[in-house]
Fold:
Amino acid sequence: MAKGEIVAGCLAPHPPHLVYAENPSQNEPVAEGGWEQLRWGYERLRESLKDVDYDAIVVLSPHWQTYIGTHFLGLENFQSLSVDPIFPNLFRYHYDMNVDVELAKQIHDKAQDAGLAVKMMTNPDFRVDYGTITTGHMFRPEWDKPLVVISSNRSRAYYSVEVMQEMMMELGRVTREAIFESGKKVVVLASNSLSHRHFTTESKIPEDMSKEHITSHAMHLWDMRMIDYMKSGQCQRLIDEMPEFTEQAIAETDGGAFTWLLSTLEVPDYPAILHGYGTIIGTGNAIVEWPVYQHKGE
Amino acid sequence: MSGGEIVESFVVPVHPHTVLAPQQNEGWAKLRAAYDEAADIITNSGADLLIIYSTTWPSIIGHQIISDPNPEWVMVDHDFHDLGSINYSFNIDAEFAAMWNTENHSRGLQSRCVNYRGFPIDVGSVVALTLLNPDNKIPAVIVSSNVYADRSETTVLAKSCRDLVKKTGRKAVAITAMSLSNRMFTEHIEAKDDRIHSLKDDEWNRKILEFLKEGRLEDVGQLSRTIQQQIRVQKVVNFKPMWWLSAMNENRNDLTGEVLAYEAIHGAGCAVVHLNPTPSGAGDKEYDEDEVEVFSGERGVLDNIVSIEAEKTPTASDSGPELWDPTNAEGSVNTDAAPKPVGAYPHARRVGDLLYLSGVGPRQPGTNAIPGGPIHDGEGKSLDYDIKAQTHAVIDNISRILEEAGSSIDNVLDVTSFLIDMDRDFKGYNEVWAETLGKVGPTRTTLAIRALPTPIAVEMKVIAKV
Ligand SMILES: [Fe+2]
Structure:
């Protein structure tokens, strides 16, 4: 069997507002638009990868929160209605997604061998979290590639960002190895925002763009600093500053997805492509691609 | 109508083990038995409403209240999915939910009702309602726990609920779905090996339970921040449920408490605690913070300029006329539950079976705040205001005066309404009317006038029968 490969890795945030503003047929609420900069960012990301061939998408979302280790979706198909518990007015999405259970199990087994607490999720009534669904939809609305869905182990809440990072570096390493051994071509996605201080009010028309801005200048500075590191290929600095960033920008990197992504990609030292940045109810969101396929053999 | 009250309160655990696997562990079985005992206490209390504050339903945009009259779905826990699924179909008091939401707005809180098919009701609420209300006999309401809320916001949320319980004459049970220490084992453990995660967590839990057993609920509320630091994994910003429960019980420290069970679920401290309002004789308490009635904290991030203006907005007493004590001629009806007069007159006067009310505006008793905001500031500069909130507040005030006179809103015969801006406000005023007095059916005359004595947009003059 040919060696598997990671063709690309992306930071692919999941605010349900993006799905709402786009008005796909699967979503019940209807908007008159909004958050276009980010939706254009996703368009550019999809365009950038349209000729890149891959078999599966591996995603880690901070909204499947597990306190007892890391869990993996373990059934072939999930379909149901996903209603966002925080923004039910915006996101009620009918999903139908396939899971690459084989690859999920391979990552699970390797993680177990490495001493991480893991579990396969095989309850057919389980509702997939809206983070995974939003990222899945924005990244590939056709839903024609199977996914591996990994939960967010809340070790940050239990210990510290440092401990979380160690565990996610390890999970990233075994994810990479399992992908290589699987013989499959895979895209890996971290589904998280950057700075994550929300507004606590919502405008009358949620998509009213005259009301949208970053919650504070400090949040903006942090986001720009992290994006600079991404654009200039300094991912080790991202890792090094992650604890400070996570705490000061209340960043959604606390869910571990971003650290896991960078580890899966072996902490890239080449520039990432920034496809878009924008705020959603005050939180900072970047759509970023690490085009591994362009850096093969380097 | 007699005033409503909180007839019982409970602290209950959130994890699904008590529903799905009580037989697997002796402690879980004890918690389940305690849950069943709590259900019996509720049945015997004659309660007609269950109010759940759930710590496993976080919200960001203020608080959310379930208002789907019959939410149905299948709940699977994010961690304990291998224990199975819980099918639910609940009986929700949608009307109470809607009124609570309105009440929250009038106290400066951000809040909204949630009524969407398939909304994922959180594990804590599903477990609590499944076990405490097994055949759905008693309607319930469920409120979220806001991730950013601190004590004042959580307290005001409870006060607006408690007021409504009183106003609507309900016999309500207040329930917090929560863990004490919430640190779980981070690895799989066998059911038989379950225990409280650490000695330190266990000691703190026992201390909390000792307080609750003595009915010292407000003391636990005042220790909330310490508890959060000592035995809480920082999932959310604060340990809030005790603030809510204490405020639901008028911040009392002399309730009658009883610990029905205390056990571990996957390491977390889980207890079923029963609190009854009968005074236990315990008592003194230390107040370390303000008694808040209206939330005026940071809720306007979306539009800073407006919120700063709103904070500076003078109340009617700053910019309006002097307030008077009501007069007391024969047949006068006066109450502290209505705003003070702006001249020498009573709130109402009774002649035979009829009650004549003085003009009633939306000002709030005590604070003199104007729900929906004043129409202009102290310098006379126009401000944006919400006519519907003002109209609701007028009708609430009328209702309180009539209740003081032994009558009720259902007995209103004739209303003369005064609007200061007919073009702008008639529609909103008329909508609120249709939902409220319109259903009672009094005759009505609506007039446009140049101004009212305080910076309000609507006033009503009412005649009712006793
Ligand atoms: Fe999120």
